[in-house]
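Technical annex, item 7. During the second reporting period the consortium partners agreed on a shared format for inverse folding records so that results from different sites could be compared directly. Each record opens with the tokenized structure and is followed by the designed sequence. A conforming record, contributed by the partner at site C, is shown below for reference.
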């Protein structure tokens, strides 16, 4: 009985967490426009993080090559 009660509680929690955002978004008149706006901002953020990661990778590679060159000379 305890296991069944726990499964029922999980099911209610999942249903609540999926239904509440849908109810909140139902008030929006232009749902597709809102989604497009949010995704555009997300794409810009992901692109910025990617550029930063590539820049850091290039910096580390440059430092590594510099260290190899200085060790080879000395």
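Designed sequence (site C submission):
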């Amino acid at each position: 009985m305890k296991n069944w009660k726990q499964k029922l509680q999980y099911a209610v929690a999942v249903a609540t967490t999926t239904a509440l955002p849908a109810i909140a978004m139902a008030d929006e008149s232009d749902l597709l426009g809102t989604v497009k706006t949010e995704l555009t901002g997300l794409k810009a953020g992901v692109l910025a993080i990617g550029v930063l990661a590539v820049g850091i990778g290039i910096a580390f590679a440059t430092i590594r090559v510099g260290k190899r060159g200085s060790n080879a000379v000395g």
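The chain has a mean pLDDT of 76. The helical segments are 2-26, 31-73. All partners now use this format for quarterly exchanges.
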